[in-house]
Design a protein that fits this description.
Blueprint lengths: L5 H4 L7 E5 L3 H7 L7 E3 L8 E5 L3 H11 L8 E7 L8 H9 L3 E11 L2 E10 L4
Parallel strand pairs: 1-2, 1-3, 3-4
Antiparallel strand pairs: 4-6, 5-6
Helix pairs in contact: 3-4
């Protein structure tokens, strides 16, 4: 059985527009090939099907929540990638705790190790208003 790319694990589908926020070239390389017709954009998050937001500290996470989340309410999935192994002052629990204040809820998790760097992603969706 062929190993799935990180993009496949992040549920990027054919034709998706994938917004990259604060991604380095190494981060993009780690994501691997996209499905047919899918493409990356660094031109903001509006109209994105999926967003992959790279953060390295809790302060940066909160900044991204304020600047990026408002434009992502229609995205199918929003993933936050952060350094693993206590190399940052945030972790999955920090993201869960902070995201609730912005009206978002966790729906899935994915982790991978590639090229010597471990990353973990948490997928979020905007909570539906009752």
């Amino acid at each position: 059985m062929a190993e799935r790319t990180v993009a496949q694990k992040l549920q990027v589908k054919p034709g998706d527009v994938v917004a990259l926020v604060a991604a380095s070239e190494d981060d993009v390389a780690r994501l691997g090939a996209l499905p047919d017709g899918a493409r990356f954009t660094r031109e903001g998050t509006g109209g994105a099907s999926v967003a992959i937001v790279f953060v390295s500290s809790q302060a940066e996470l909160l900044e991204r929540f304020a600047s990026e989340l408002p434009g992502l309410a229609e995205a199918r999935a929003v993933w936050f990638c952060y350094p693993k192994g206590n190399r940052a002052d945030l972790n999955r629990d920090t993201i869960i705790r902070e995201s609730t204040a912005f009206g978002w809820r966790r729906t899935a998790m994915s982790q991978w190790t590639t090229r010597g760097r471990r990353c973990a992603c948490v997928r979020w969706r905007r909570a539906k208003r009752q």
